[in-house]
Amino acid sequence: MSDTNHSSHKQSFWRTYIFSTDHKMIGLQYGFTSLIFLFFGFCLVMLMRWQLAFPGQPVPFIGKFFGEANMPGGVMLPEFYNQLGAMHGTIMVFLGVVPLAVGAFGNYIVPLQIGAPDMAFPKLNMASYWAYFLGGVTMLVSFFAPGGAANSGWTSYPPLSNIATMGQTMWLFGMVLLITSSLLGAVNFIVTIIQLRTKGMTFMRMPFFVWAQLVTAFILLLAFPPLEAAGVLQLMDRLAGTSFFMPSGLVISGQPLTISGGGSPLLWQHLFWFLAHPEVYVLILPAMGIVAEVIANNTRKPLWGLRMMIASILILGFLSFIVWAHHMYLTGMGTVISAFFQTTTMMISIPSVIILSSLFITLWGGSIRFNAPMLFALAFLPMFGIGGLTGLPLGLAIADIHLHDTYYVIGHFHYVVAPGTIFALFAGVYYWFPKVTGRKLNEALGRLHFWPSLIAMNFIFMPMMIQGLAGVSRRLYDGGASYAHAQGVLHLNVVMSVAAWALAIAQIPFIINLFWSIKSGERVKSDNPWEATTLEWSTPTPPPHGNFSTPVEVYRGPYEYSVPGAQKDFTPQDQPKV
Ligand code: HEM
Ligand SMILES: [Cu+2]
After folding, report:
1. What average pLDDT is seen over the chain?
2. Cα dist. 533→64, 78, 377, 556, 569 in Å?
3. C or N terminus of the chain, fewer CB within 10 Å?
4. Residue 357: is it exposed, middle or buried by C-beta count within 10 angstroms (0-12/13-18/19+)?
């Protein structure tokens, strides 16, 4: 358990900022690190988009800095393109979005919202961050390994990954560290939420964000171990000469491979997707949690159907474990098994639709405040809607035969994770920034960030679906230029690339805002500048070590907004009943 004497001791620089055990500092560490990784992963894809729009032409200005091994004469080699692709996916999912959604927002906000002084296991929390950090560094350093970084896609399918260059070994080591980090974090969240809720904070009084983090933690805890085991098996295949994933009789470039064989490449796919489908809910549930908080606050209304939303998120968490093979319809697994996974995939869309509908209905009749966090939260709804609905055809085997491994898939899941999840995370940054710093982010810069980002996102991802419907495969080095069937939609590559670079420019106001507002943003006039109801706004700003200056008790549900007869249009959870 955490130490009880929270407020009195003064700690050294190292203990306060580097090896901190305070959930808020660890949350900030996660936040900064993951934002840097997000930015880096985004830069990788900016380079790729040059090659896709103008295949074979030298990358202007910066091409020459990448060396003869990657870009001779500034022209990107296919080997390097594959590294960029694999590392973009890996970094965005495992080093960017998940650590930001869970490590940063979960860590900072959950203990505050349940009235706890810290996480249940502060040292474990610190270990989780440092495992993440080491995993990230391993991934980054792999670019300098002989043959460069991993280049077999973020899915790392064998046999390709088993015979890939050394970067793949580093990818596997990195993943083992990242998974370990997530497992430590997951245990901590579960124990904290179950054990450290303050007096009166019953389960049904927990904010939706806390529910989202609880279900997410369970998913991480149960889905990641199979991938960790699979990662170790692939390491054995690569380093110790085993053949867990290698079939007999493989011939590469005319040479029979000298391996014992007898393994199954499909086994990897099952183990991978057993994590990676639940993982998409790890990406999306915290995002829904953030959006729910922001929408309740800015409509000044309770969340419509909160109990049903909670039931839905629990069902989502459960069902997410039995849909994984919808990524594998083309592996010949047979119609009975396909029918099972089609059915579960259709079923899981129901709770998603319930949550989305509840959030939409909450808007009805609200006196909506269109501030920066709310704009991002509002945009999340239709964008996630497009992402979710375009997933349905993929869930049906007959449609997926055509769509599998095309750009349609890329369009689908990017709608979910980019203007979906990442917009929700932006909403969270704008919403909770005043609690962390005592200052608001600038509204005008926020709008300058939001509108161009929204437009650019749609010009990037909508054309992907059009290309995919035309049959253009994903992971093509030339963006389809050498394929006859792609010619009619090839011009869209330029549209998407220009939009992607516009999206990059649209992030400049955000970066300026972040740094400028820490020092010079408008000071908040109270600890509760948004007039919110949940407990994090009842702490001093920023919350001190130990969080609450006096013991808190909870008397009511999380979203008592505009209660008839109440003095104000919000009643904080810790306000006693009269
Ligand atoms: C709302 C319900 C959803 C359904 C019905 C659905 C369905 C699917 C299916 C069937 C595929 C496999 C397509 C193929 O390989 O041919 C797929 C791919 C993918 N989906 Fe979803 N999905 C949903 C939500 C999400 C969410 C919430 C995320 C992420 C936050 C996501 C991220 C992905 C990713 C990353 C892939 C690509 C995997 C790859 O590299 O092959 N999906 N989706
Ligand atoms: Cu899936």
Report:
1. 95
2. 55, 53, 18, 10, 10
3. C
4. middle
Instruction: Kindly list the distances between the CA atom of residue 92 and the CA atoms of 15, 108, 556, in Å, as whole numbers in the listed order.
Output: 29, 21, 38
Asked whether the predicted pLDDT for residue 524 surpasses 50, the reply is: yes
Rounded Cα–Cα distance for residues 566 and 499 (Å): 48
Among residues 41, 32, 28, 27, which one has the least CA distance to residue 418?
41
Question: CB–CB of 527/548 below 8 Å?
Answer: no
- Residue 14's Cβ-count burial label (10 Å; 0-12, 13-18, 19+) is exposed
395, pLDDT greater than 90 = yes
The number of the ligand nearest the C-alpha atom of 328 reads 1
- In angstroms, the CA 570 to CA 301 distance is 9
pLDDT mean over 485-492:
97
Query: What pLDDT is stored for residue 7 in this prediction?
Result: 47
- Ligand 1: atom nearest CA of 404 is 16
| pTM, full prediction | 0.93
Task: Return the pLDDT at 258.
Answer: 87
Which residues does a 6 A CB cutoff place in the pocket of ligand 1?
155, 280, 283-284, 326-327, 345, 349, 352, 388, 391-392, 394-395, 400, 403-405, 409, 412-413, 416-417, 421
What is the whole-number distance in angstroms between the Cα of residue 324 and the centre of ligand 2? Answer: 5
Q: Report the C-alpha gap between 512 and 521 in whole angstroms.
A: 11
pLDDT of residue 121: 98
CB half-sphere exposure, 324, CA atoms < 13 A:
21
How many helices (DSSP H) and strands (DSSP E) are in the chain?
19, 2
User: Which atom of ligand 1 lies at the shortest distance from residue 283's CA?
Assistant: 30
User: Where is 448: in which H helix or E strand?
Assistant: helix 443-469
* Residue 344 in this model has a pLDDT that exceeds 60: yes
Which amino acid is it at 310? I
Task: Place 5 in a pLDDT band, splitting at 50, 70 and 90.
Answer: very low
- pLDDT grade for 9, boundaries at 50, 70 and 90: low
